[in-house]
Amino acid sequence: DISELFAWEALDSRGTPTVACEVVLAGGGRGTAIVPSGASTGTHEAVELRDGGERYGGRGVSAAVANVVGPLADAVRGRDATGQADIDAAIRWADGTADLSALGANAALAISIANVKAAADAAGEPLYSYVAEAGAEPLLPLPMVNIISGGAHAGRAIDVQDFLVVPVGASSFTEAIDVAWRVRRGTAAVAEERGYNVALVADEGGLAAPLPSNRSALELLAAGIERAGLQLGTDAAIAIDVAATEFYNAEKGRYELASEGRELTSDELVEELRSWCADFPIVSIEDVLAEDDWDNWTTGTSTLAKVQLLGDDLFVTNSARLNRGIETGAANAVLVKPNQVGTLSDACEVVRAAQSARYATVLSARSGETEDSWLADLAVGWRTGQIKVGSTMRSERTAKWNRLLEIEARLGARAGYAGAAALSPNPG
Ligand code: PGA
Ligand code: ZN
C-alpha cells in the first residue's frame, strides 16, 4: 500500500520547473518520476498547473507540488499500488475536472508514474515487464529521430517543426540508433558545407539551421542520408511533424508558411505535402493539419493514404478524440504523450483503442524533457511499435535511447524488434 508521498520542483531540459515525486510503499518498494512539458501544446490537452507570479517568471509549479503532497496524497494513501486503475481513478476523483485543471495534470502524472515504478520495484520486475499485459512479449520500438528542427522548437526559422529519420532498413533497435547517428553526422557535414553553424541546436537537439524554406530542410536531410552512405528510402526514410496548429490562422482559415511568405488553404497544404511525398521518401507525417480541422483531416487522410498520418494535437492522447478520428477516418496513427492526458491508465487505454482499430501508436517525449526514462519502458511493455524522443544527443533524449539500448542488450536473443512493419498503413 502507498504509505508516503514526497514531491519537489525540478527543472526540465529547457530549464523550466516541473513536478517530481516519490511514492513509497508500506511493504517496501519506491518509485520516483519527473514529468515532461510541451511547447507546441494542443488546446485540448490536460492542463499543467503553473504558479504565475514572480518565481521562475510565473512558470513555477509549487502549487502542483503542494497538491501532490496534499489533496492527491490524501486520495491515494493506503491504496494498493498494484491497482493502477484504482490509483488513477482516485487521482481523477480528487481533481474533479475532466482536464485535471484543478490540481494539475503535471501533479497527477507525477503520482501516476511514480506509483507504477514503485509497484514494479516492489514486484522486483523491470518496469517494461511490469506494465506488459499478461503473456505479451517485450517489443523494442522503431525509433523516429529528430535531425532538423523548425517551428516553436527552433525560433520559427522554418514552419515545419521536425524533420526526422526513420531507420526503416535496420533489423534491431541498436542498429537503428547507429543509422540515426550516421544520418545526424552526414546531415551536419552537409549543413556545415552550406555555411550553417551546426553547433546551434533546437529544443530536442535537432539542427537549428536558418534554412530558406521547408522544402530545403527535406533536401538537406536527404543529402545527409546519402552523405552517410545510406540508401535513401530503403536504409533510412523521412518523417516530418508539420505541427500545423502552430501556424494556422483561425480567423483567416489559412495556414501561414511565414518562412516562405505563403498562405495556404487546407487543400493547398495537403497538396504541398503530396508534392513533398512525391520527391522524398516520406513515411510518416504528423499533424498535417490543425487540431480542429476535422473534415479536412478526413479528406487529407485519403489523399495521402500511402503514408502514416499521425495525430498529435489532433488527438492529444484523448480517447474521445481518437474515437472520433477512427469513426471519421481522420489520420491512421496516434501520437501518445502521457502528460497530454495526465494518468498512465488513460494513456494505456488510448494505446489499446488504437491497436484494436489498427491505428499505429507512437509513444512520444515532449520538447521539455528530463533525465527520467520511464517512457522507454512503456514503449517496450505496451508494444507501441514506435517511439519519438528527439535527437540522438542531449541527456534528456539519450536517457530514453540508452534505456532502450539497455533493454535490448539485456534481452539478447529474446528481444523482439518492431521495425518498419510498425508503420501505418500496415500492409500485413
Ligand atoms: P511539444 O512538441 O512537446 O513541444 O508539444 C512535440 C511534438 O509536437 O511532437
Ligand atoms: Zn507533434
Automatic annotation (TrEMBL):
Cofactor: Mg(2+)
MF terms (GO), sorted A to Z: phosphopyruvate hydratase activity
Class of the enzyme per the UniProt entry, highest EC level: lyase
EC number(s) given by UniProt: 4.2.1.11
Record field: catalytic activity: (2R)-2-phosphoglycerate = phosphoenolpyruvate + H2O
Location of the Enolase C-terminal TIM barrel domain: 137-425
Keywords: Cytoplasm, Glycolysis, Lyase, Magnesium, Metal-binding, Secreted
A UniProt-annotated Pfam family: Enolase_N
Active site: 204 (proton donor), 337 (proton acceptor)
Domain Enolase N-terminal: 2-131
Organism superkingdom: Bacteria
Compartment list: Cytoplasm; Secreted; Cell surface
Pathway: Carbohydrate degradation; glycolysis; pyruvate from D-glyceraldehyde 3-phosphate: step 4/5
Task performed by this protein: Catalyzes the reversible conversion of 2-phosphoglycerate (2-PG) into phosphoenolpyruvate (PEP). It is essential for the degradation of carbohydrates via glycolysis.
Family stated for the protein in its record: Belongs to the enolase family.
Name the record gives this protein: Enolase
Organism: Rhodococcus jostii
Gene field: eno
